[in-house]
Amino acid sequence: MTSPALAERLDGLLFFPVTAFDADGSVDLGAFRAHVRQGVEAGAAAAFVCCGTGEFHALSPEEFGACVAAAVEETAGRVPVVAGAGYGTALALQYAAIAERSGADGLLAMPPYLVVADQDGLLRHYTALAEGTGLDVIVYQRDNAVFTPETVVALARVPNIIGLKDGVGDLDLMQRIISTVRTELPGQDFLYFNGLPTAELTGLAYRGIGVSLYSSAVYAFSPEIALAFHRALTAGDDATVNKLLDGFYRPLVNLRNQGRGYAVSLVKAGVRLRGLDVGEVRPPLSEPAPAHVKELAELIERGLALVGDH
């Protein structure tokens, strides 16, 4: 069991690489390796591969295993590799087994496919996944998997469930979850992550309830901006935080909200704009409109200029 080791290593900015595809739509492992390598060398604390930004939903089991193995080779133990796992319990266990064989350090457990379950059903699903793998598990709260504080306490009692990533953004709920786990399991280290799209926009709010870890989609295409923001947020330099929020992150979120799936396709466009051809998104996602890609390019330049001023 590697729970303490992984939990202790998840301290810093978390990198969610995109999955690279060739012109014919097949996985481009060479470009993917380069993307992972660049992200780690720039200063990421962990690589979360084949997750939401990495189009987990669009990958076959064979492609998933090849990408996880490639990421493990490229990181070479410098940072932990966490892989996505999802769908129903049976398939989630299969993806977990592939990730474990491929050398991953942990799993990000996506919501179950399609169904809206009650709390007991969700608890049974994630418990079965955790008990069926030797890897550490971070549960991703979003969409059809939203938990009561009591359910999170029950999840936290499972030895290799080490944290909760929140993609809902209900701070009242998150505060109650944190308070209840702290009360019911005193002294237990349980990790919390801000997992909202463009998590930097809500970084100050999450910091206020004690959640400092977050996933940065911006890091995939502009580690310079993402790291500058992370340093400022960690140091309590709210002037720099607000400068980047006003000049870069808020306009980026406004742009992201212009199209469905832009939380992934716009990130991939950003990676291409910075010089690495990682291909287009797979269906059912669509590419962003050319005008929006142009706006993204201008935003990246503005963000880099703001970091230069900082």
UniProtKB/TrEMBL annotation:
Looking at the keywords, is Lyase present? yes
The record's listing under InterPro entries reads: Aldolase_TIM (IPR013785), DapA-like (IPR002220), Dehydro-deoxyglucarate_dehyd (IPR017655)
Write one Gene Ontology MF term: 5-dehydro-4-deoxyglucarate dehydratase activity
Protein's UniProt keywords contain Lyase: yes
Q: What's in the keyword line of the UniProt record?
A: Lyase
Q: In which pathway does it act?
A: Carbohydrate acid metabolism; D-glucarate degradation; 2,5-dioxopentanoate from D-glucarate: step 2/2
> What EC number(s) does this enzyme carry?
4.2.1.41
Q: What class of enzyme is it?
A: lyase
| Gene Ontology annotations of biological process type | D-glucarate catabolic process
Q: Which SUPFAM superfamilies match?
A: Aldolase (SSF51569)
Binding residues annotated for pyruvate, in chain numbering: 53
What's the catalysed reaction? Answer: 5-dehydro-4-deoxy-D-glucarate + H(+) = 2,5-dioxopentanoate + CO2 + H2O
The annotated active site, in chain numbering, is: 140 (proton donor/acceptor), 165 (schiff-base intermediate with substrate)
Family of this protein: Belongs to the DapA family.
What protein name does the entry list? Probable 5-dehydro-4-deoxyglucarate dehydratase
Q: What is the lineage of its organism?
A: Bacteria, Bacillati, Actinomycetota, Actinomycetes, Kitasatosporales
